[in-house]
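1st attempt posting a full record on here, be nice pls
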Amino acid sequence: MRQNLSRATAFIVFFVTVFVLLALDRYTKFLAVSALSDGGSVALIPGVLDLMLVYNEGAAFGILQGARLYFIIVATLASLGIIVYIAITKRHSLVRVFALALICTGAVGNAIDRALSGKVVDFIHTLFIEFPVFNIADSAITLGVIVLVFSLFFPHEHRSGKHLHREALSSRNRARLDTDASGHSVDSEPDSIAGSDNPDLRGDRADA
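the predicted structure (as tokens):
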């Protein structure tokens, strides 16, 4: 995948994405707690998706219950690791930076819940399939991992118009140099013979 982002630009993309998605995660959790604390549910898409409040003490989608401190430490180390990776890498791909921002958002979003109350606020419930209730942070982690794996195993090099134009000019210049070099090597031999002081060479050339 083409590394088309500088370190500074990658940091801007990363932190803006994390800030926006983290704000969305916090706001939707606040709304869920405010509107669904009575134990009821709200149909979002009838028969497909509804909203119901569930408190989760485990990881994403309800797995590994009761490991609060462990998850906070893992989330902190993962987020720091992502930031260090961006800091020590000179060039980045936009897709990969976006994927890392999604993963970091999910880790931090749920870690904040665990640090504040010891449990994560989940509220998105699927009706068409048996699936644990989840939240925006869970979705961000899952999508981030999928995009990251895709970027690693299915790289795609994006070439801009300026990049293609520069490559075309470079190829044209190389072809011109090759042509000039070939013409010079062919034409230089008669000139060297004509200008030679050896009468035999001049005679051979005249006979020819």
